[in-house]
TrEMBL record:
<dbReference type="GO" id="GO:0008933">
    <property type="term" value="F:peptidoglycan lytic transglycosylase activity"/>
</dbReference>
<protein>
    <submittedName>
        <fullName>Membrane-bound lytic murein transglycosylase B</fullName>
    </submittedName>
</protein>
<dbReference type="Pfam" id="PF01471">
    <property type="entry name" value="PG_binding_1"/>
</dbReference>
<feature type="domain" description="Peptidoglycan binding-like">
    <location>
        <begin position="374"/>
        <end position="428"/>
    </location>
</feature>
<dbReference type="InterPro" id="IPR023346">
    <property type="entry name" value="Lysozyme-like_dom_sf"/>
</dbReference>
<dbReference type="InterPro" id="IPR031304">
    <property type="entry name" value="SLT_2"/>
</dbReference>
<dbReference type="InterPro" id="IPR036365">
    <property type="entry name" value="PGBD-like_sf"/>
</dbReference>
<dbReference type="GO" id="GO:0009253">
    <property type="term" value="P:peptidoglycan catabolic process"/>
</dbReference>
<dbReference type="Pfam" id="PF13406">
    <property type="entry name" value="SLT_2"/>
</dbReference>
<dbReference type="InterPro" id="IPR011970">
    <property type="entry name" value="MltB_2"/>
</dbReference>
<feature type="domain" description="Transglycosylase SLT">
    <location>
        <begin position="52"/>
        <end position="353"/>
    </location>
</feature>
<dbReference type="InterPro" id="IPR002477">
    <property type="entry name" value="Peptidoglycan-bd-like"/>
</dbReference>
<dbReference type="InterPro" id="IPR036366">
    <property type="entry name" value="PGBDSf"/>
</dbReference>
<dbReference type="InterPro" id="IPR043426">
    <property type="entry name" value="MltB-like"/>
</dbReference>
Length: 435
């Protein structure tokens, strides 16, 4: 609801005119800035950095080893210029920005796991479950992955094919391979993208995310060669147009990563009162039956499946005490290996549960604030100096960061919520300044 103010705004007074020499100086500065932008901007048909073209040409021996012909190689690199608008690049002469990354790592749980989005995708997923029932039955029979899970991945990755990936895959992979933070990985993916062209994938089909993933269920090129499946029997592994191929390929990848048929991925739970959130440690593992004996009750009126009771589980609190709690099982980590993000797994898992007849999260997500990347990095550096954090400095509020923060809150008598916020950061900075 919009509230209209009844207070009359103060009249706006015109600013005094600038002296003529100041205006001329302002115009001159603007013109110089414009010229500088034109000089620095990539020119169509010409690479922004000659070294980039030399790097592309130097890929030929390795491309040839993968069976790429010279003609395909030249077609693949012809006209490619780096896309300097992509995130996570390290460009000489340009101030280095912090990693921007995926939405899973820069949004709060409440922002990423919007109820409207989850409910909409689950509804579409139920319709597609009926439409592709026989194909999905055969996929589960062969790979052991339930229909709802592969449908949820399809929904999250490309909204069931309705989201059109925005980038040319070869340009993305070349840019990330030359300027990115994971050069070796993207160089390899670029070579496999050339192999895809050699094997008959039209260049026009090769649209990608900013990270180079392609197809209905978003595969990197090397993953297509590891896990791609021709499930419709037409002799091609088509992850772009064939729903059976794309879903079977996703299931094959999950199976290869260790999916356990007949087991769930996680359970939302009601924890005991006055829970110490620092026990939400991935290393704090014990059988699900023991968690149950300690008072962790499945949310939403569910029961723990008998097949899961002896399986090891750990506690996950993605928003600290400001959101739902989960006991996560082996299949949770299999989905996480598909996309290394807790929020991604919760998104896919919840949509899958809803497609299979379940409902929304029982405990609502509080609207917590996500600190800026630089602030989270400063917090991680301080926690590292105190010996509480031993993981990488990445500016992300991941499991290890939340756990270390909870330990800091306990050690300093602060309210214990295991969520990085401005108040705790100010406390850290105050202690540092007071030394």
């Amino acid at each position: 609801m919009t509230v209209l103010s009844t207070v009359r705004p103060a009249p706006v007074r015109p600013a005094p005119a600038r002296p003529r020499h100041d205006r001329l100086r302002h115009v001159a500065v603007a013109l110089l800035a414009a010229v500088a932008m034109l000089l620095l901007a990539p020119v169509p048909g010409r690479a922004a950095d000659p070294a980039f073209q030399q790097w592309l040409q130097a890929l030929w021996p390795d491309a040839q080893k993968l069976g790429v012909s010279r003609a395909t190689f030249e077609q693949a690199i012809r006209g490619i210029e780096p896309d300097l608008s992509l995130p996570d690049l390290v460009i000489p002469g340009r101030p280095q920005a912090p990693p921007r990354g995926q939405a899973e790592f820069v949004q709060t749980p409440a922002e990423y796991l919007r109820e409207k989005t989850l409910a909409s995708l689950a509804g579409q997923g139920r319709s597609l479950l009926a439409q592709h029932r026989e194909t999905l039955r055969r996929i589960e029979e062969r790979f052991g992955v339930p229909p709802a899970v592969v449908l949820a991945i399809w929904g999250r990755e490309t909204a069931f094919g309705n989201y059109k990936l925005p980038h040319d895959a070869l340009r993305v992979l070349a840019t990330q391979g030359f300027y990115g933070r994971r050069k070796d990985m993207f160089r390899t993916e670029l070579l496999y993208a050339m192999k895809m062209m050699q094997d008959g994938v039209p260049r026009a089909d090769m649209r990608a995310s900013w990270g180079g993933a392609m197809g209905l269920t978003q595969f990197l090129p090397s993953e297509l060669y590891k896990h791609g499946v021709d499930f419709d029997g037409d002799g091609r592994r088509d992850i772009f147009r064939s729903v059976p191929d794309a879903l079977a390929s996703a299931a094959q990848q999950l199976a290869a990563k260790g999916w356990q048929a007949g087991h769930h991925w996680a359970y939302e739970v009601r924890p005991p009162r006055n829970l110490d959130c620092t026990i939400a440690d991935p290393d704090n593992v014990k059988p699900l039956r023991e968690w149950q004996a300690q008072g962790f009750v499945p949310a939403g009126g569910r029961r723990f499946a008998a097949a899961d009771l002896q399986e090891n589980a750990s506690l996950l609190m993605p928003a600290g005490t400001h959101g739902p709690s989960f006991l996560i099982l082996r299949n949770y980590y299999v989905i996480k290996d598909y996309n290394f993000s807790d929020l991604y797994v919760l998104f896919v898992g919840n949509v899958a549960d809803r497609i299979a007849g379940g409902g929304p999260f029982e405990r609502a997500w509080d609207p917590v604030v996500q600190l800026r990347t630089a602030d989270l990095e400063a917090m991680q550096q301080r926690l590292t100096a105190l010996g509480l954090y031993k993981d990488k400095i990445d500016g992300k509020a991941g499991m290890r960061t939340r756990l270390a923060l909870g330990a800091y809150e306990k050690a300093n008598g602060l309210p214990l919520d295991c969520w990085p916020d401005a108040a705790v950061l100010d406390h850290m900075r105050g202690r540092t300044a007071g030394r």
